[in-house]
Amino acid sequence: MSNRARAMKPNAAQIKTDWAARGYGCEYWIDPPDQTWADFIRDVE
After folding, report:
1. Contact in structure between 24 and 17 (CB atoms under 8 Å)
2. Distance between CA 39 and CA 15 in Å, rounded?
3. How far apart are CA 11 and CA 33, in angstroms?
4. How confident is the model at residue 23 (pLDDT cuts 50, 70, 90)?
5. How many whole angstroms separate alpha carbon 9 and alpha carbon 3?
6. Is the pTM of this model over 0.70?
7. Band of the pLDDT at 1, cuts 50, 70, 90?
């Protein structure tokens, strides 16, 4: 991996720590290829 690509790659642990310091949670989700969210409504946007 080149230095530039390494510099551009997000550091998940660092992001999670930064978000937690600001009061946010952080979870990594990968949906299956056929997943749709057509009927999903969030309580808070």
Report:
1. no
2. 29
3. 25
4. very high
5. 10
6. no
7. low
The position carrying tokens 């991996």 is: 1
Q: d(Cα 45, Cα 2) in Å, to the nearest integer?
A: 37
Q: What is the pLDDT of residue 6?
A: 66
CB 26 within 8 A of CB 19: yes
How many whole angstroms separate alpha carbon 43 and alpha carbon 19?
A: 20
Helix (H) or strand (E) holding 8: helix 3-8
The letter for the amino acid at 42 is R
CA gap 30, 3 in Å, rounded: 27
Assigned token pair, 38: 């057509």
